[in-house]
Amino acid sequence: MARELRAQAAESAKEVHDKRADTKANQEARFGSLINLLFYDGTKGKDVGRPETAINHKNVVVKKLQSKNPSMITLEKFVDWVDDRRDAALGYERVTEIDDGTYAATRGTKDEAEADRLFRLTERLLDALSVIDEQPAHSNTGHLGDGHSASNLRQRLREKRRERDAQFLERQKSFVDAQTIKEGKSKYEYHDEFLDDLD
Prior knowledge:
single chain; mainly alpha; two-stranded antiparallel ribbon; 6 helices; about 65% helix
């Protein structure tokens, strides 16, 4: 009975892991296609851009955004996805899922050209949204044209980056404190009452 339950649990865990991997691959393909549509040649599938590839002009991005008319939720997820890829290209440490379903801290190889490309894509998107926001709005709640799309996304991106930087500074401070204690240079005095009993 116990073996059957363990086998069932292992099978369920594998199904969840496979479903999560499929969802991630689907998201990569959808957002890669959106990058290609907005900024490059419109190829379906993974992002075809490279640091040396020319990016579409802002007016072209505006027209493509207006024809696609993505929801704000899609744009938020898209901007987060591009910014996460930029963080990876900058070599920031992040937590990723390993093949066996566990998680581990990983650090990508630093690629400043790719990070710059992703930053330019984000800025081009936000600039195009600013142009759309300035146009006369029609009632289109949840989609483009509400007059605040660019400012809302910029604010969201700033808060996300500020939170990431605060977490980094907190981790860095904890490492410095741990090193200080290890070297015996702590500003805190430690007292061991058990040593007093030995005197």
